[in-house]
Amino acid sequence: MAAAHSIHSAELERHAFNGWLVLGLLMLWFVAAVAVIVSTGAAANEDAISPLAVGLRIWAAILMIGLGVFACFGFFTLEPNEARVLILFGAYKGTVRSSGFHWVNPLYSRSRGVVPGSAPMAQRVKLGPLSVTDGTRRQTLPTKLSLRAHNFNSPTLKVNDKRGNPVEIAAVVVWRVDDTAQAVFDVEDYESYVQVQSESAIRSIASLYAYDHGEEHEATLRSGGDEVARELQKELQVRLKKAGVVVEEARLTHLAYAPEIAPAMLRRQQAEAVIAAREKIVLGAVSMVEMALSELARKDVVKLDEERKAAMVSNLLVVLCGTEEAAPVINTGTLYS
What we know:
Blueprint lengths: L12 E2 L2 E2 H27 L5 H21 L3 E4 L3 E7 L2 E6 L3 E4 L7 E4 L6 E7 L2 E8 L2 E3 L1 E3 L3 E4 L3 E4 L5 E12 L2 H6 L4 H17 L18 H16 L4 E13 L4 H38 L6 H16 L16
Parallel strand pairs: 1-5
Antiparallel strand pairs: 2-6, 3-6, 4-5, 4-11, 7-10, 8-9, 12-14, 13-14, 14-15
Helix pairs in contact: 1-2, 4-5, 6-7
């Protein structure tokens, strides 16, 4: 048996009727219906028409008023960066993107179903001193969509980095709807889809990088901010393309070791910082001692044998590498006494 393949939707832009023009025509329509009723009443008083004609004209006027009221349900407004998907009896007819006051066929749906898996929302209805709970309301999905940029702040997630260390990570994703047909028809609820796929992409990216101290020229979560952000954006775009969503930006907002290993990692970082500082101090001290010996020899200030050089080197290294200020000791004797 062949597997079923999903059909990818494509947006079809439509232009609705000008709402102000249709409103003017409807006002004339209602005036015409009232005029029919008034003229029919005047003619009936003068016995100018038969009772059958009077009944037919009255019913025609009532039908005109009913059609006019029904047509009023086709008005809607769109703000800038908003769109409405036109659905007629389950068939997609297009998307209106232009802002303003519009009119379309009143039979176009104003909702596109119920949020899948949503539980009924209880509502208490007061009936005098009594109240009952109406559990039939569910969260419906409107056909009007926002095309503005949205921010999704992910919760703090606990994941394992490339080296298996548990870390806490969170990110902010800036996204917007680009294809309304895909957002409405190719996924159940595009907002929930963005949230779930964003968290999945964050976990996937975090497992590809080490928290810090990667291999040579290797980006890490801590130091490779721009590269990690670009990779996260690419990963999100691949996942959210199916929903007609464009990812404008994605960036990490929180990064830390998990609480269970944070103290140990902090001690390691402190030890590495101390070692790096000591290494720099020793290198500087050795260069200063070498310079001092070379200057003494060049200017012939004092002639030192190997033992005296060793003693001077030892004293200078103690002074330069020590963490506390050196206390001078005056030697009144000689080095050999």
